[in-house]
Amino acid sequence: MRILMDIRTAGDRFPGIGRYAYHLACALARQKNRGELILLYCPGLANTRFDTLSFAADVKIVAAGAPPLTAREQLLLPLQLRRLAPGVTHFPSWIMPYAAPRPFVLTVHDLIPLCLPAYYKPWQRRAYRASLAFSLRFAARVICPSQATRCNLESVFPGIGSRLSVIPEGVAESFRPCTKKESDRVRTKYTLPERYLLHVGSNKPHKNLPALLDAYARVGRAPELLLAGAHDPRLPEVRRRIELLGLANRVRLIGSVPEEDLPGLYGSAQAFVFPSTYEGFGLPPLEAMACGSPVACSDIPSLREAAGSAALFFDVCSPESIANALQRIIGDEELRAGLRAGGLRRAAELTWDLAAQKTLDVYRQAC
Predict the structure, then answer these.
(1) Contact call for residues 196 and 223 (beta carbons, < 8 A)
(2) HSE-up of 348 (CA within 13 Å, CB side)?
(3) Residue 8: CA atoms inside 13 Å, Cβ hemisphere, count?
(4) Fewest C-beta in 10 Å: which of 66, 77, 199, 239?
(5) Residue 275 belongs to a domain with what CATH number?
(6) Per-residue b/e over 90-124, b at no fewer than 16 CB within 10 Å?
């Protein structure tokens, strides 16, 4: 079986999809009896996170004729794919050339524009739905990272259920409890306090950071709150809320963090907090667990699936519930120890190698 996987999103522009594409590609490259593996990547796109050329010697790396979300993608890429003649092609998101040769497998991570319509303009929702519907129509198989996403898809696109497969994402081996040396390095680099709370993610509306700030302001004597991740300057609400609540001396935005620093940042935190209102899967809480950080997160279906019983859950619609969870996880060492132990066990159950094995089964079904 000749497999072609599109990893053009494995760059800085696509933080979540790119992480999925890269780590799944690495795991597929490690699998025995997988057949020929071709990876399509974009050498010209900004990529400070992943080495898209360091794969097994028998993996073929091909430069794509067009980057994602361009007219050239629709015009040139189908021709290039036909020349490569794959037995099956995997597109890790709805971003794909619609005239791609079949069979192909599509991964749908979430339906945020349709499930959270208030955050998008009507034309954006219509365009997203139309493009996704077109991709789904011709996909041989569709991978969802959670039952929650599967239910969303079946609700919006009835009749697609027979082609859906749920394959949870995994935790990369680099996410593990760090050594004191590594912890000290990261602490020095970011001038970290002895105790701090951590959030890793963007400032997109569904990440719900204003509610986290409202809750944090209610907690007396809380350690410093660090917000890591790319922040879009077109969305200034987080900075405004920090100023409005008088939290400038207690909340710090540290921006995007290199992959090699994330384990130390997770592992040194007193707790990791994730107040998202919607996730297709929710990888940051699992990565935090793998690094030994106690996790408090939203009580939403996808995070219940991902975290199991290893997190402290709160009502995402209630700043008071979030504040109570913060107060508990800050003040109760026994609770943190239990969450830490449970988190390590849960993270060990979800690996990219397991995801790759299940994905290979889907490829075979598609063929």
Answers:
(1) yes
(2) 8
(3) 23
(4) 239
(5) 3.40.50.2000
(6) bbbbbbbbeebbebbbbbbbbbbbbbbeeebeeee
Q: Which helix (H) or strand (E) holds 344?
A: helix 333-349
Residues 187, 76 share a domain? no
- Residue by residue, pLDDT tens for the chain (367 residues) are 999 999 999 988 888 899 999 999 999 999 998 999 999 999 888 887 787 777 777 899 999 989 998 999 999 999 999 999 999 999 999 889 999 999 999 999 999 999 999 989 999 999 999 999 999 999 999 999 999 999 999 999 999 999 999 999 999 999 999 999 999 999 999 999 999 999 999 999 999 999 999 999 999 889 999 999 988 899 999 999 999 999 999 999 999 999 999 999 999 999 999 999 999 999 999 999 999 999 999 999 999 999 999 999 999 999 999 999 999 999 999 999 999 999 999 999 999 999 999 999 999 999 8
In angstroms, rounded to a whole number, what is the distance separating the alpha carbons of residues 117 and 206?
11
- What lies within 8 Å, CB to CB, of 112 at 6+ separation is 119, 206, 278, 280
From residue 65, alpha-carbon distances to 70, 118, 124, 225, 354 in Å are 11, 36, 26, 43, 31
275 shares a domain with 215? yes
- Report the alpha-carbon distance of residue 190 to residue 200 in Å, rounded: 14
Reduced to 3 DSSP states, what percent helix, strand and coil does the chain have, rounded to the nearest 5?
45, 15, 40
| Residue 357 amino acid letter | Q
Q: b/e for 155-165, b at 16 or more Cβ within 10 A? A: eebeebeebbb
Same domain, 93 and 187: no
pTM for the whole structure: 0.93
